Amino acid sequence: MAVTELVAQISGELDSKAYEVSDTLARIGTEEVVEEMIKLLSHENSDSKFLAARTLGKIKNNEAGLAPLLEAIQNKENSVIAGDLFMMLEDFDLSSKYVEIFKHFLNGSFKVSTQAKDLLDHKEFDITPRVIRKAKKHWEHYSNNVKQDELYDLRKIEVNEMLEDLEAYLKEE
User: Fold this and answer.
1) What is the pLDDT of residues 26-38, one digit of tens each?
2) 2 contact partners, CB below 8 Å, separation of at least 6
3) Residue 127, domain extent
4) Could you tell me if 129 and 61 lie in one domain?
5) Per its UniProt entry, which superkingdom is the organism in (predicted)?
């Protein structure tokens, strides 16, 4: 079956074979599939967007899909499914995206923030002094623009531990 026919099966109303089609497209994994999944991230149907993100995550050479997926997560139109889309980042190389994931940890919905924290805790990132400076800058911005309550105090403890761990890691290097 042609890629366009398979893509059509996960565009719009989905049937019971939608996940199988997603898996098939991921196995095909060509540049054409990646391009089609990137286009599908803008589809009006939320389920189609989710399956596009899922398919991109399963493709072996999915680097080209990372930036569009991050854009889709940030798109206010996708706020209801942002957490579901964010889950699909697990299958990408995020090594250069610490600061972006950190920003989602600070500013995302509960689901996005929780998943971002999990990625920050379990994925490998390229940590440099610049990355730490940028993370601190975002923390400062967040601190200055959020209600200073008990939740903030807990977040502050958590973030300070994270940043201290990163600095200790760099010193060990």
Assistant:
1) 999 999 999 999 9
2) none
3) 94-173
4) no
5) Bacteria
